[in-house]
Amino acid sequence: MTVEVDLHVHTTASDGTLTPRQLLEEAARRGLKAVGITDHDTTSGLAEATKAAQAVGVEIVPGIELSTVWHDQEVHVLGYWLEYEQNWFQVVLQDLRQERVRRIEKIVKQLNNLGYHISLERVKEVAGGGAMGRPHVARVLMENGFVNNTGEAFRRLLAKGAPAYVPRQKLTPAESVRLIRRAKGVPVLAHPGLIGNENIVEELLIEGLEGIEVYYPEHSAKEQARFLELAERWHLVATGGSDFHGSDRASVGDLGSFGISCATLIKLKKVKDIISASAFGI
Fold it and tell me: How far apart are CA 271 and CA 237, in angstroms?
């Protein structure tokens, strides 16, 4: 399948290394027809991305990636074409970002206790006003010579089970799906292969899940085939994306390396039209 649309990318609005404009310019250079901007718990990059998309001739799919917890397992839920400018929705996102800040404060304190002396102020500078996350801490650790790359920072210090890992309060996947649908968006389960339990798909169907990310860098061929079968069984749109963060982010794909065709994007748009119509009682 030729990748025409990458539905899972991040910018400096969260933990990516390219600005929304830089990302769209790079997408145009690579011949992509559309890109889904799915920053973590924020939509702050979408205005710039929309302007850049018009300038370079690449369609923007406005989105978000919400972090949730399900049976002590981290689960991410993607949302597309939300009416994200609504005040109530932005209040929810603000609460989520404040929780991110509290978590990073604890992580930095733990790192300092372990002898990795970095400052919270520098982490905030690296985040550049975007939603702070562990990748920003990883970059500061690398900057200070404690690790060789961000992947090493996660493996040694920041991943679940590592010495400086700190859990944070999160939504449940069901709450995220309901939140996205309330904002008239299309909810999609991100990288199910990283969850390790496909029972979540059936649970989220009840809440209104509309898609599943089948094509993803860390899915094996066997997993991809299995998730495609699940999508067909449950009448979900089989989506895909690279989870591109930038050049210094380990273990995710390059921009446009994974994704979908324009024909599949049209299917997803039809789902959006149905959700929008039903939200108005049509």
Answer: 9
Q: Which of 82, 35, 77 is nearest to 57 (CA)?
A: 35
User: 5-92+169-279 adopts what CATH topology?
Assistant: TIM Barrel (3.20.20)
What residues pair up with 9 in beta bridges, in sequence order? 37, 244
Burial class (CB in 10 A: 0-12, 13-18, 19+), 73: middle
Is residue 196 within 8 A of residue 73, CB to CB? The reply is yes
- Angstrom CA distances, 59 to 52, 64, 170, 248, stand at 10, 16, 31, 26
Where in the chain are the domains?
5-92+169-279
Extract the tokens encoding 209: 């899940």
Per-residue pLDDT reduced to its tens digit, 168-191: 777 899 999 999 999 999 999 999
Please state the pTM of the whole predicted model. Answer: 0.84
